[in-house]
Amino acid sequence: VQNNAFAFCRWSITIIIWCAFFLKLEWLVVLSFVILLISALTGVAHSPLIVIYTQTLGRIIPSKKVVLNKPAMRFAHSIGTLFALICLVLLYTAPVAIAWRVVLIFAIIKTISAFGFCPASKFYTCMSKGGCCAFSKKVFHE
Question: Structural domain boundaries of the chain?
Fold first, then answer.
């Protein structure tokens, strides 16, 4: 995956969710859900935003390839899909103020991820190695 395509994917989803929050547009939350769902089902290399970038700007301005932990990315996209689904359910069933606060939390988490500190990917990597600290390694390996 091109490094710029991966950055485009991370930042595009983040911007979509922030726009949904500030403009109070539920369809943008739906859009983020669909993009994340397709990414989770097909893998990061076939993510809609990765493909769009690679087939357009990536042809004009190619960038270095980045090696990604595919299972960790699939897990992260699955968690993002679940979070977007929770936001959608709340938007249609919960008090509006609560629902949009959850969308705000989602936007903050996606912003952290866009800066390269993806909590879901880190969690997956840590757990697949048996933990990130001495305590968790002891718990998961005994």
Answer: 3-117
For residue 4 the two structure tokens come to 């710029």
**pLDDT tens figures, 28-72:** 999 999 999 999 999 988 999 999 999 999 999 989 998 887 888
Q: Determine contact, residues 109/83, Cβ cutoff 8 Å.
A: yes
C-beta separation of 83 from 75 below 8 A? no
Q: Write the Ramachandran bin of 66: left for phi over 0, alpha for psi from -120 to 50, otherwise beta.
A: beta
Contact between 128 and 49 under an 8 Å Cβ cutoff? The reply is no
Give CA torsion, residues 13, 17, 20, 26, to 10 deg.
80
